[in-house]
Write a structure and sequence with these properties.
The structure is a homodimer of 347-residue chains.
Chain A: H1 2-6, E1 9-15, E2 28-34, E3 43-51, H2 55-59, E4 79-87, E5 97-101, E6 107-110, H3 115-118, E7 121-122, H4 139-152, E8 159-163, H5 168-179, E9 183-188, H6 191-199, E10 205-208, H7 214-221, E11 226-231, H8 235-242, E12 245-253, H9 274-277, E13 281-284, H10 294-306, E14 314-317, H11 324-333, E15 339-343
Parallel strand pairs in A: 8-9, 8-11, 9-10, 11-12, 12-13, 14-15
Antiparallel strand pairs in A: 1-2, 3-4, 3-6, 3-15, 4-5, 5-7
């Protein structure tokens, strides 16, 4: 086995500097290393595809958050799907497909003591494709599912509004809410995305925030007000939604992509007193808290996918890890259409 | 009876104009009316004392809120305690003490069809004094009690921070939290108020926001972070607290007195993404939702008062309804010390 690996080179993308605003080329460093055998208890994984997420922008900042920042000079953190090349860990064998925190690199050597922290877990490609395992069956899907179900607690007939509706989390939230009997209204950028979530995913309506007034759209499409708002964007859209929430509404704070590259302070929701008037609740979620129940959500959603009750759209970019910096930028301009995935190797 | 009432004059304060910023003299109109007998099913109440509350500022604004605005030309809305002068309603007799929405006037004629809406209810002065019935046993007490217990859900050992700590709501929240075994840290304006909540009410500490840094005070007095924040003020203090909350923290939005007289937009909490990082919750409360359980809170707190486990401080201003406009202003400068009460007649 050692001879098989000896000729392999691991290309990596490391964080070179903490960005101010949008990340630029100089914030990244490209390195290469020889690929090494795993030691006792470790696993060597070949990366097939990486998940590109808005949360990555937060990991690049210094300071306390729900997870430690990526250190300067470290391989950029990323979730991904790969295939085990060599294993000295119980439960993993060469050829197994896995998901976990692989990092922006072609090979990920996970030592025994980091197995747990990497979240490395075997996945079953009969339940979904590699890219679906990064989307509906992966972290975005888990985020959407548990955010909606646990914090939102949707009831049939309620109105659910979702920003970033065509994004990775948004598509899960909207489809699960429809399956629960809710009225679902998305907010997305551009007519193509709006058409897709309505025509393909079955949302009741979708408001193009780039092409018109969100306020007017909510007025038109939420005649009975808003019971649940799943927020991925923050900023003006959050403020507008707050003017139309119902009594006892639930607002799930999943992200605030409109604010992540700010060089000025975050814009706080100036209409937050609507929470008081409406006895409403705004609550943050972090997906890792639900790790012990991921398998339940995966089982349900894999069933929906296979039965055609749910769809999953990924925007797959090729070019390997070298394409990472340029591809990440698409998230913040809204250029991606569906869950943004970087393909690193053929499955 | 008609002859007894015929010579009585009812002095009233009416809303003449919607204020911009702090209410001014021209926003009020003084009127007088003869006092009339109640018709069948109605009650005539003589006002003894009125509750002056920050929420009154909101009632003076146009627009949808949790309660309709006071109309121009209408008697200003106010909760109060009074004594029944004449009754043609079952359950009320002359001499009964009552609380309810009496308005800023010396006599309140409540017709049958408004009995329910006025919340008129008999009170027992053996459980508390007239002013205590406007404080710990009244709306502020109910607000503090149910906001803390239902939304906050305090557990022994948790740290509870309260802004407006010496105010009507704050005193209840802090004392109930202490009785539940929490560490209680107040925020109030001025050393005298801070000393009082610590020395008289038994708070563990109190931060004088006028005399020093709230940030430093929280760092010093909340070594284990903040589990519950009961917010009466909004603005900068809310933002500062958000930087120090614990995982799964609960923030009760009861009011935002720092923002009520703004002529610029409300300042939204720019650190609201701390809710995400900490999986925390911000929730608004309106006391009326708990009306069917007021009696439980009253029973508990009257017991605490009588056993000396709880104290109640009112800032009683004399001068009758004519003194209303000037007295209301004290709330917004923080001049009042304890629950602000306007005495209208001797008990």
């Amino acid at each position: 086995m050692a001879s098989t690996l000896a000729h392999l080179v691991n290309h990596q993308v490391r964080l070179a500097a903490r960005p101010s605003g949008l990340p630029v080329a100089g914030d990244w460093q490209f390195t290469e290393e020889p690929v090494a055998e795993p030691a006792e208890g470790g696993v060597l994984v070949k990366t097939l595809a990486l998940s590109l997420d808005p949360a990555m922008r937060g990991w690049m900042n210094e300071g306390k958050s729900y997870i430690a920042p990526v250190g300067i000079g470290e391989v950029m953190r990323a979730g991904g799907v790969g295939v085990v090349v060599a294993s000295k860990a119980p439960g993993f064998a060469a050829g197994d497909h896995v998901s976990g925190t692989l990092g922006v690199q072609e090979y990920c050597l996970v030592p025994a003591e980091q197995l747990r922290r990497s979240g490395l877990a075997k996945i079953d490609l009969r339940l979904g494709t590699v890219t679906q395992w990064l989307n509906v069956l992966g972290m975005p899907g888990m985020t959407g599912y548990f955010g909606l179900m646990d914090v939102g607690q949707p009831k049939a007939g309620e109105t659910v509004v979702i920003s970033g509706a065509a994004g990775a989390v948004g598509q899960t939230v909207g489809q699960i809410a429809k399956l629960r009997g809710c009225r679902v209204v998305g907010i997305a950028g551009g007519q193509a995305k709006c058409d897709w979530v309505v025509q393909e995913l079955g949302f009741d309506a979708c408001i193009d925030y780039k092409g018109g007034s969100v306020k007017d759209g909510l007025k038109q499409h939420c005649p009975n007000g808003i019971d649940i708002y799943f927020d991925n964007v923050g900023g003006e859209i959050l403020d507008t939604v707050l003017t139309r929430i119902n009594r006892k509404a639930r607002i799930i704070i999943c992200g605030a992509i409109s604010q992540y590259n700010n060089t000025t302070p975050v814009q706080g929701p100036k209409n937050y007193l609507s929470l008081l008037v409406n006895r409403a609740r705004m609550e943050g979620i972090v997906v890792f808290d639900y790790a012990d129940r991921y398998h339940l959500a995966i089982a349900e959603m894999a069933g929906h996918l296979q039965a055609g009750r749910m769809k999953s759209k990924e925007d797959v970019v090729t070019g390997g890890v070298a394409a990472f910096p340029g591809t990440l930028g698409k998230l913040f301009t809204g250029e991606n259409f569906g869950k943004l995935v970087l393909q690193v190797a053929e499955a």
